[in-house]
Records
---
Amino acid sequence: MKMTELDGLYALWYREFKVFLREKSRIVSSLFTPLLWIVVFGGGLGSSVSLGGTNYQVFIFPGILTMTILFSSIFFGLYIVWDKKIDFFKEVLVAPLSRLTIFAGKTLGGCTDALIQGSLMLAFGVILGISYSVQMVALVMIFMLALASAVVSIGLIIGSFMESPEGFNLIVSFLVFPLFFLSGALFPIDNLPSWLRAFTTLNPVTYAVDGMRGVILGMSTFPVMMDLGILLGFAAVMLGIGSIAFSRMK
Amino acid sequence: MNEFSVAANRSFGEVVIETSGLAKKFGHLMAVDHINLSIREGEVFGLLGPNGAGKTTTLSMLATLLKPTEGTAKVNKHDIVKESDAVRRSIGIVFQDPSSDDILTGKENLYLHALMYGVEKNIREQRIREVLRLVDLEDRADSRVKIYSGGMRRRLELARGLMHRPKILFLDEPTLGLDPQTREHIWEYIRRLADQERVTVILTTHYMDEAERLCDRVAIIDDGKIVALDTPDQLKQIIGGDIVRLRIKNPKLSSIKELPYVVKVEQTDGFVMLTLKNSSAHLQEILGLVGNAESVELRTPTLNDVFLHYTGHEIREADAEGGFFERAARARSS
């Protein structure tokens, strides 16, 4: 990679990061929904339900962590639609940078946003009485990064095809809610009816939830390393498709 | 008119842009219809025409943002289709709509641009200061673009387009919607770039004054075709004289038409338009012959007259609609 490409990569990341820091509302709004889930839904149901000896609120915590990453990552693709609208993207496209660099810069920016939000959510776990070790935090971070890079790619791929924010939102809603609800974020996946089990097994997000639940709470359906392997594979595929989508973009 | 005498004496370098049969079709619409152009280094070249004439499309193709349907062009000796990366390194472009990020400050936008266009690290800071001074935005450099006025935004865009010292600068309607003072400023600045820095400037405009004041050569473009191309002075020569506009009832025109210095006589509801050679010497005689005129207006021809001469309509007529359709067609095919 040439020096200018690296500079360009840094520029694209720098821009996303600056914007993220300045648009405080982005952080607040993207943490609001997960917090509502964990506090109200988890707290309400948790007052009478526990799963495998774990309080329900704590049980869904890894799922809500996944939700934070999932939503903020996929909606990151929306900003590329906005960039097109304000013509900022034209300025980027006309720059002497390869399309791959543009995709990589955007993905890095999106992953940074998602990881910051994920970390804030992770810290919230302390309030729920979860205690972390350094290894745990490191491993959860790797899970979050793998999930973020896959889902940011999906968001960017969709964003690269869409001309309007409304269209983007429509498509993403059809995608993001099934991914979330069929991931076992809110329920254990061991004793599901077979049709539901089929869906959750096929859903890559399941392995993020399962893996993080394994790391944080020590309860998982699959081995944690298998979860991580599947998730990394999913990320690799999405990053690949994303770079192809961007290189074809005019 | 000092500027024009300067313009006439200016010498241009080698050909830096050459198009051959460059064409772009959006659906059924031939937006750019096989254009052939040759532009030299240091020239300020204007594409003059109404909205929807194909100016922006032409610019977008030269800047490698759009692929031509037919034909091609060489920009700085690089083919726009086959060597688009090399083309992008030689050019700067300022879009019609502002494309800075308004959450960032002016300076941050410039910094990003410097990074993306490979401006060397050790000269970045200096270059940023330099262009900020050029467009007179030094004291607003650290404000967010969100609170800039329209003129300031445009100046920032210009500054950005110049940061990496492009050989060729494309400007799409550089002074659209700006106040006269800012326009004047920007014109001076563009002129200086071409004269002192030898930057070749290709701009689109539908402002006659902009084309006349700023451009060394102007291509009049209508319906995707170049209908005339020359220096503004030469273009106006085609009219063949000055224009006299008379408000008059029952004009006696038959005797006038025969006079050797009368180039053209036109009559439209209540008005007579005459094109006269050496008008000041003959105006008296004309007024004597034509009858009682209520008002007389004598003026030198403008590019608007030239445009009218070639296309049969004024530049403003095709405005909004043409632009809209071109844009709609472009949005669909991209």
---
Amino acid sequence: MSLLERFAKGDLDAFETLFREFQGRIYAWIVRIVRDPGIAEDLTLETFWRIFRTRGRFDAGADFSAWAYRIATNLALSHLRSKRPEQEYDETLSPVSSHDSALRRESREQIQSAFAKLPAKLRLAVTMALIEERPYSEIAQALGVPEGTVKSRVFRAVRILRQQLNRMGVMGVTR
Amino acid sequence: MNEPDQNEISTLLREALPPMNTELRRDLWPTMLRRLEQPSARTAPWYDWALAGSVAVVLCLFPQLFLLLAYHL
């Protein structure tokens, strides 16, 4: 009997083997999305808890890795949705016109603020595609959507960020 | 929107939000094992069973309401 068949039948040793093989990769994927090691550990445990609970529905011939990444991504997305942006966008922010470090820090905070206000799905797409530079195909598989959908989400996120950063005067800093 | 726009946003984002350290700091298996060994606290409360019983009784008395129930599920 294969490892996945034993896991699907509830064999705890088989689950431990899978857990040890995948915990690092699942954690790495989640921490890129949620950007908090503590929360990423909790979500990694929750991912494997759900995997174990629903093992009866797992087809031993299917791709375990794809299944695990899908569950992890959905959990991370739910976390992003539940988390409110820590800082509200201030419409009165004045444009940044100098290169000194205080202003750079300010513009960094403005970028973080604009990023935090993106809808969760767009934030996830832009994090994985533009910050972590993961391939679109990998993101699409983890989300269970076509590659075109990921590209479209990145496109929309970039457009929103550009509008907000232009309004804040941040885009001009790097030109 | 074009490629340079996306590249510029990408650069700004990477400056403001550097890529995370993706190394797992500890083995999570002992925590997972503790969780697996805990008895499940998820049992249906008594009022869920009462509600299910009531619905079953109503459906036995008025089977034509099944479609209405199915519509709301």
